[in-house]
Amino acid sequence: MGIFGSFSASVNANVDVSASVDVGASVDIGASGGVTVPALGLGGRRDPYLSYNFAVEIEGLVVGGFSEVSGLQTEIEVQDYREGGVNQYVHRRAGPTKYPSLVLKKGVTDVRTMWNWYYSVAQGIIQRKNLSVLLLDSTGQEKLRWNFEQAYPVKWVGPDLKGTSSEVAVESVELAHCGFAAG
């Protein structure tokens, strides 16, 4: 025994840890007709759409068989303006919007629709058409749409033919247009 006496202690600890997570989703439709979708809760996920799952629609008809679509881009041209007496910087103003051509590629078949359209334009018969590129989800449902206005073919490229290759013969058509909007 010391000056303060003896001391002993024992500790018993039982720890019970449990957690519960309730992930729910609801959609609220307000009086103004707007739809509000809440953010995904813990564990929810939204996978990006796959680029191979798309369709092309020309004048309201879905035309299939395209293996590649490129040219889904737009750019605002920036114009520099030097103001007299201001030497610290150059003003940068938004200029016109540029749209590159849309390029559609597909395997060559007996259906000559794209060639015939190009050939008529080459003969001076310009037939402008509205078309859409649709991005689909894994079930084939439309998720995104880009609507191109007043498109017409300006270039056609035939397949590269090689006796030593077993690749699919692919043709491409390049379409000029007056812009597009996501729909």
Overall description:
The protein is mostly beta strands and 183 residues long. The protein has 1 helix and 12 strands; from the N terminus they run ββββββββαββββ.
Write the layout of secondary structure elements.
Elements: E1 28-29, E2 35-36, E3 54-58, E4 61-63, E5 66-70, E6 75-81, E7 91-98, E8 102-107, H1 113-122, E9 129-136, E10 142-157, E11 170-176, E12 180-182
Antiparallel strand pairs: 1-2, 3-4, 3-9, 5-8, 6-7, 8-11, 9-10, 10-11, 10-12
Corresponding CATH architecture of the domain at 52-73 and 100-182? Roll
Shape, principal axes of CA atoms: extended
Do you know the CATH topology of the domain at 52-73 and 100-182?
A: Pnp Oxidase, Chain A
Q: How can the largest sheet be summarized? A: 8 strands, antiparallel
The whole-angstrom Rg is 31 Å
State the CATH class of the domain at 52-73 and 100-182: Mainly Beta
Q: Helical content, roughly?
A: under 10%
Give, in order, the helices and strands. EEEEEEEEHEEEE
Oligomerization status of the protein chains: single chain
Name the poorly predicted regions: 1-7, 13-32
Helix count equals: 1
Structural class, by secondary structure, is: mainly beta
Measured distance between first and last alpha carbons: 87 Å
- Note the beta-strand portion: 35-45%
Offer a few descriptive terms.
single chain, 183 residues, mainly beta, Pnp Oxidase, Chain A, eight-stranded antiparallel β-sheet, two-stranded antiparallel sheet, 1 helix, 39% strand
What's the short version?
By secondary structure, the chain is mainly beta.
